[in-house]
From TrEMBL:
The keyword Transferase applies. CDD domains: AdoMet_MTases (cd02440). One of its GO terms (molecular function) is methyltransferase activity. Keywords: Methyltransferase, Transferase. GO terms for biological process: methylation. The keyword Cell wall biogenesis/degradation does not apply. This is Methyltransferase domain-containing protein. InterPro entries: Methyltransf_12, SAM-dependent_MTases_sf. It comes from the Bacteria. Residues 41-135 form the Methyltransferase type domain.
């Protein structure tokens, strides 16, 4: 796996994703699912935003948090280690999706911000792994970038935050890459305080498709929850 996240993991939580529409929709849907008893799988758990949402929405159920990028996983482990309840419920798995060894049954799956990092054949492998483990109606929650075909994504502001004397500014832009891909470039500029300005440029690859494409390739039903988030189910 290309690790697109570790070089900028220290900045990840400065991007205003908390309380996004997708996260709110995930929280509402999970909170209404009082019948989930099997573990919930969080693929590409990142620094723990979605793990916390799952833990707060579905009491007691175990959470399998899959995060292969070491620096992202360090932040996740720190967050889980702070809370006794999370320590008992959350299992952190350092593998990529193609290496997973899963239990026989899953209550739900969350894949926020990650499926576009998988090729079509990796996604096929993922569906083959997940579907036998999900009961009828069990949800797979997804959040995607709002680009279904490779396009030019004009530069946009990603973050603009101050911590102490340091100011963190980030932009994101994208351009079409080979085949179905977009090449995304983020640029972080950290300035101020008693140290030199840092400029960190980071590139990642995102395979473009939409919710309906996922439904077609997996044979699942799809329901859109927000412009970027949706749910797939058997
Ligand atoms: C955009 S972040 C999303 C983090 C979190 N789900 C959220 O919404 O805040 C995508 C995460 O997917 C992880 N990832 C990338 N490729 C992966 C793969 N093949 N298997 C599992 N996780 C992967 C990355 O390391 C990264 O932490």
């Amino acid at each position: 796996m290309d690790d697109f996240y570790s070089p900028v993991a220290e900045f990840y939580d400065l991007v205003g994703r908390a309380h996004s529409a997708g996260e709110q929709a995930l929280r509402e849907r999970l909170s209404a699912m009082t019948h989930i008893h099997d573990p919930i799988l969080d693929i590409g758990a990142g620094t723990g935003r979605t793990v916390m949402t799952i833990a707060e929405s579905v009491p007691q159920v175990d959470i399998l948090a899959v995060e292969p990028a070491p620096a992202m996983r360090a932040v996740l482990t720190h967050a889980v280690a702070q809370c006794l309840e999370l320590r008992q419920r959350v299992t952190i798995i350092p593998d990529t999706v193609d290496q997973l060894q899963l239990p026989q049954r899953l209550g739900a799956v969350v894949a926020f911000g990650v499926l576009g990092h998988l090729t079509s054949s990796q996604r096929q492998g993922l569906w083959a792994l997940l579907l036998p483990r999900l009961a009828r109606g069990a949800p797979i929650f997804v959040e995607l970038l709002p680009v279904e075909k490779p396009v030019v994504l004009p530069r946009m502001m990603l973050a603009n935050e101050t911590i102490g004397q340091r100011h963190y500014q980030a932009t994101l832009e994208g351009e079409p890459g080979p085949d179905d891909t977009m090449l995304l470039t983020s640029c972080w500029t950290v300035s101020g305080g008693p140290c030199a300005t840092q400029v960190i440029r980071n590139r990642s690859i995102w395979h473009t498709f939409g919710l309906e494409d996922l439904a077609r390739e997996s044979g699942l039903h799809a329901q859109r929850l927000t412009p970027q988030a949706g749910v797939l189910y058997v």
